[in-house]
Amino acid sequence: MEKMYSGGQIATTNSLENYPGFPEPIGGVDFAMNLDAHARNQGVEIINEEVVEMSLTGAVKKVKLQRMNIRHCSNTSNGC
């Protein structure tokens, strides 16, 4: 989940240096776009929306966004 765009704070930097896998400096926006593309290629769904509330206790984790709620069960045997 990203409030505005993929990458967050790193996307605001002009140049990222000395990062494993990038032999030359890379701009923050380009770096963020690479991270986004990599995650999507691995099947990750990226949701651009602000988190307004979280409940991370117990087996069921809940995240409330401005326009939707997400519920994740860490153990499917508990009936989730």
Care to describe what's here?
This protein is of the alpha+beta class and 80 residues long. It folds into two domains: 34 residues, no CATH class; 32 residues, no CATH class. 18% of the residues lie in helices and 20% in strands. It has a three-stranded antiparallel sheet, with no helix packed on it. The chain is elongated. The two termini are 22 Å apart. The mean pLDDT is 83.
Summarize the structure.
This protein has 80 residues and is α+β, with helices and mostly antiparallel strands. The chain has two domains: 8-41, no CATH class; 49-80, no CATH class. It has one helix at 28-41; strands at 51-55, 60-65, 69-73.
* Total domain modules: 2
How would the global form be characterised?
elongated
Number of helices: 1
Proportion of strand residues: 15-25%
Strands ordered across the widest β-sheet: 1-2-3
- Report the count of strand segments: 3
Question: Low-confidence spans: pLDDT under 50, at least 5 residues?
Answer: none
Terminal residue distance: 22 Å
Structural class: alpha+beta
- Would you tell me the overall average pLDDT? 83
Helix content: 10-25%
Radius of gyration equals: 16 Å
- In this structure, how is the largest beta sheet organized? 3 strands, antiparallel
